[in-house]
């Protein structure tokens, strides 16, 4: 041990070094180790009382280094405890020699004092500024080594026995770096650690970087980049690869010296062997368990779940996200915890959508890490974009997942409380990243059918569902995990006019690309029929005739719901599909007895009766396909009961989590699954509507303006009255002049908007002129409507079309409208009918 310890401060030229640690209830500082060079005629006492007047006790109590020349030493008692065998250490002289200087440096970590480091040299001015800086860095190394070893073995080893291993970890030396030129002077101990012969060292920093493990180069480079210099006392831990292939752990501490102008000039540093930082048996076992679990993961979601279970608890992390990298987007496969409130807004909105992904360009810092391909660790307070800071405010680790020479994904690990990254953690994360990247590629290869299903579903199903007034709709789709896995399940949410919304769920027979293609055609057709304004039974009848006319033998089941969001009245049409499920506000569930018709594509003269059901606010409507309720081992009746039990137990406050609860945790599915859930909340402020039929008379436009004026004044709308009258004039004029049949004027007052709509019997959409001759007497109607409206457009209706315009109202004007209509108005402007 003396031979090892003698090398600790060899580069400083010290004659004698020693370490004292508290003992006997922290009342005494006990000598733990002392090393003197050859020919040293003096030593140090074995102990000092903490309350005494010795330099060791004074530095320990004060927590600051003491640099004492012969004159200063005369003021202290150096004889130690009276019963100490070394009570007179100065060879009987009773005082130190006249040419001895003493340095005493307290050893502490995170505010805890571990002892003192004593350095003695035979010179009156032995400790100049540079040597003081280096000795302080050495003291930090001693303290860090003792603390690291103590943390691992304190449970079974007493304090004194820690000093040997602690000092042993400090084998090393010092270096000086001139920041302006990049030239470095390193002693023999530093070069020996890196495996470089002194005669081969060219004093270039790059020579040391070549021996560094690539993942640790960014950390090491920070000490030579002026913008990234470490703070005083900061320890860096790096790994190097020696010429013989040996992997060695090193600990680095450095201090920057500035010139008279305050600019960085030189850096002093100490490098020490840090073998105590090598991965422990526990860390190795984590990697082994992860490797074993990944071997059995066959899908991307399975791989992601294995990563979460293997890393979150051992690392004490608060969040773990795993995402694939596809083109320029992150496709999220797992966020843990799954609660939306645990994640930043961008990740939350993407995850709660049907196909969670996010653009790489929205997080440039993350994108740059993926380009570099190395593990990145950010401490608290790092300058990151909000979408990353929110994942790990106390610390964030980003693991690019490499495989086959490219980055295939990314894993993000975040902590809420302040987290300090150790070098062993970097090693663990680097090893993990390689394993996970390979597993992702393997899952793609083993699960090609799943990828095909995902691609088809992304192109044929809606990426996001619309926001609904008075309710929340969410949907989930899971492909089968057996067979080709390309199914025909679909869902859709279609906003309609007059506050209605259509909910659709269906299933095309079979599992094939043909089934998926028919599914896409049926979804498009039903959406088109619904937007045209057909009643629910007519929509399904049209879809039935369309499927019969296609060149296919496949049939489809479907459930179509037309829901009035204002009144809560729903009209159901069921074509061979599973009946809808309801969760009532009191928590009870029921299977709606909706009268059914035949599947689509079976009978040309099939009838599809309507069933009317009233929904109270707080009701949850669930539409599902048979893959969720039926399998080879689960009868349909039992499956429906299981889904109803899950629906009754779920919390309707979070519709997305409720949908996830209904899906359950089954990993093997014989059939694909589609689920559409609507939580009906009801509309607290209902729109006000009136309709008026325009008679085809010479003064029809005048009557339409008078009707509009009376109506808007009764609603309290006065500021935008002239604008509304102009829009009514132009739309009614166009309808009467260019169409035949009935013309109807609809006025709707909702929130802060007035909607003016004119229905006519012509299917031809209005065409806005590209240019108008100013000498002409017409052709400016639609240009005026566009100029006066916040938005305008036309939609097809059954046998005709509707041209509409929306006019924005001032908040005070909307409040006056509510008062004029006789509504009870709250202070915030909310109406209660």
From TrEMBL:
Listed InterPro entries: Bact_Sigma-Reg, GAF, GAF-like_dom_sf, HATPase_C_sf, HATPase_dom, PAC, PAS, PAS-assoc_C
Keyword Hydrolase: yes
Protein name (database record): SpoIIE family protein phosphatase
UniProt keyword annotations, A-Z: Hydrolase
SUPFAM superfamilies: ATPase domain of HSP90 chaperone/DNA topoisomerase II/histidine kinase, GAF domain-like, PP2C-like, PYP-like sensor domain (PAS domain)
Keyword Signal set for record: no
Chain ranges of the PAC domain: 234-286
